[in-house]
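Assemble and predict.
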Amino acid sequence: MADPLTRTRQARRDDLIAATIRVINRDGLQAASLERIAAEAGTSKGTALYHFTSKEQLYSSVVDALFDSGRAYMTERVLAATATPRHQVEAYVESNLRFILDNVEHVVATQRIVQQQTGTVQIDDAIAPLRSLLEAGQQNGSFGDFDADFMAHSIRAVIDAAAYYLPEHPGLDGDHFIAEGVGLVLRAIDATDRPEARTR
Amino acid sequence: MADPLTRTRQARRDDLIAATIRVINRDGLQAASLERIAAEAGTSKGTALYHFTSKEQLYSSVVDALFDSGRAYMTERVLAATATPRHQVEAYVESNLRFILDNVEHVVATQRIVQQQTGTVQIDDAIAPLRSLLEAGQQNGSFGDFDADFMAHSIRAVIDAAAYYLPEHPGLDGDHFIAEGVGLVLRAIDATDRPEARTR
Amino acid sequence: MADPLTRTRQARRDDLIAATIRVINRDGLQAASLERIAAEAGTSKGTALYHFTSKEQLYSSVVDALFDSGRAYMTERVLAATATPRHQVEAYVESNLRFILDNVEHVVATQRIVQQQTGTVQIDDAIAPLRSLLEAGQQNGSFGDFDADFMAHSIRAVIDAAAYYLPEHPGLDGDHFIAEGVGLVLRAIDATDRPEARTR
Amino acid sequence: MADPLTRTRQARRDDLIAATIRVINRDGLQAASLERIAAEAGTSKGTALYHFTSKEQLYSSVVDALFDSGRAYMTERVLAATATPRHQVEAYVESNLRFILDNVEHVVATQRIVQQQTGTVQIDDAIAPLRSLLEAGQQNGSFGDFDADFMAHSIRAVIDAAAYYLPEHPGLDGDHFIAEGVGLVLRAIDATDRPEARTR
DNA sequence: AATGAATGAGAGTTCATTCAT
DNA sequence: CATGAATGAACTCTCATTCAT
């Protein structure tokens, strides 16, 4: 009653979302026609549009599904971190990279979809909280004197690039990968001339 | 004979390349049909294909034109730098960012084109030289103990993201922008000789 | 047994017919998809086809429902008229216009449906009785010397056009509207016994 | 130079317009898909859209072509008539019916197209001039005391219905047909009790 | 050297209809 | 009785490409 989506309906939607992710990763965004996606999901174009109204809505669902689970995953971990900006940034980067590690294909598909859209609108939503953390650390004295907005964009660039990095390095150790990303970011933001800022 | 391209021919090609860049930046890659590009160049679809054989070749020309001038610009400056890895990386990042600053639209158009293509083939060409510099610096002892391949990808991600950053920040001071990018990279790679830097 | 249609069944059919009329009037014939009609009736496409087998049959029901009640309404009034052709034509036009006045939406929907169908088959059914009345009046000497078939079509055209006229003139007085229509027709058919009437 | 349309282009456009008219008359509006129209014109869907941008524009061209020539034809004849409202209305109806007689298929196709469109917008354009003539004749005293707006709509209904009447009566004599239509209208509008109004 | 014209493959979308439940 | 789900045929439209001139 509280759930407007039938079990079957939700299942088909999930099938189609998964198929979309698979096709985009395997064949590229350009080759991801509704017909191909539907075939990958073992159904027809008509059925796909019965469940999603439009291709755009299917893509939105792919994106939203990722953002919803990603936000939940990261928020939990960032809030669990000791409430210093440095620990929070560390938790932010680490949880984001681990989430990517666990959802590479979904992340890559989402990035391809979002890139295609002209407006980089929602990216700003991703920038703001990170920039806040950085500014807090600067007022705190634990971070260096960088341009927080530029830094936030750069950190996001490093994290997002990691999704493309993974499929090209199949045997890569996940923890190593995460440690490298976290280390890079922390070195880039840490106050360099105040060693006491670093010891907790 | 040494010049297979008539002057007119080359001029038309340049017109079309410039038009392509303009259309992609203004209307997005998806809207960049041959017809629209040709209209922007003040000519017709037929003529565009007379000069370029295929749309793919037109796009390749856009990409190649950027890579050729970019490579020339950067190589000169990296070679002019003092022959320490650190100075060279600094010159690499600085010259790349300055080149982007001077050619934003061309860079953005190129990135959109390359992103669309499934194979991230030529990216590896851009990674190799940078990774070499980083490895040299590590053997040198002037850089920290990071994964050079991952770092090379991350530095490229930061630089490439800068091209998207610029159009969104119109009043931005170019030298500030470059200094921020260079600073970020140098902090990320420098030997810290302070092992306690990582809290984890 | 004498009543093959359950009361519920008949009620649902009426609901759907009413919904069809509403949708066609509000959104136009082209927008009248089964889905929209079903939604308007508060049910589903599947149910609509359960009650009507095909969309064509639903449309036929809309048309038939109108023709049945219209025929009943008019026949009664024509038969009640004094049995002169002139009084009968007058009763025909008047009752038809009054019926339209009382059932504008249903009439408009029906016309849209019938127009769409290639064959103007049933229109002839509507022409024949009117033509008979006209011919009777001509033999009678009370009508002029016009082409009865053409006149019958023209009178029907005037009456049918009235249905479209009404929605565009919301405040219109019904009796005035009917009087105008009746007057027009009577003047057109009456024996003029003034041969100079035509200047040509 | 003054003509933006090539001879070939105009020829193809005319072919397609003619094909559209033929298909609508033969198979009905619903069956008039772009593919069928193109096939009828001996070309392909792609070519049809190369010349017309959209199906809607093709239809508009069909409609406009008729209105342009019809307006020219009728205006000439109405202006040539003696400048009494009665002669002008007579010329209006006669020229319109003769135009229909000479262009039945084009007229029918146009009516089907216009009917399909929800808004009966341009119909009002057709009503206004006729209503003006009628009002002039009423002030003049040569016409009876009818509702001029309603009468204008009714006359148009009679004329428009004539287009559908013709194909159903193949052997019909044109002049008889026109005389019937003109006679009907004149009887409907003439002042009945002032015989002097009729003699010039 | 240039281009108007033509084309066909493929895209997303709509919709009446079938069917299992 | 009712309907959610599925489907396939048909539709309009876009676009890179070919070709005659």
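Confidence is low (pLDDT under 50) at residues 194-200 of chain B.
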